[in-house]
Design a protein that fits this description.
3-stranded antiparallel sheet
């Protein structure tokens, strides 16, 4: 079960604010970028980088995960 609609709006608002502050400058985003995704009850932060031996192929590398447990609030 995922987040409620109102919670999703709040999460997206907070995460977009985070990206505004912490995302790399535009001139290097082709080589390093930061993003997030929401999966069920978790928010995952990741970096996107090109593969070292195939610069046209990009991969996401997770570096942080926060999970909401409703029973523990």
């Amino acid at each position: 079960m995922g987040f409620a609609a109102i919670d999703m709006v709040n999460i997206i608002e907070v995460m977009e604010g985070y990206l505004l502050k912490h995302r790399p400058p535009e001139e290097i985003r082709a080589k390093l970028d930061t993003g997030y995704r929401i999966e069920k009850q978790s928010i995952i932060l990741f970096q996107t980088r090109p593969q070292w031996n195939k610069p046209g192929e990009y991969h996401d590398y997770d570096f942080a995960k926060a999970t909401y447990t409703k029973s523990k609030d």
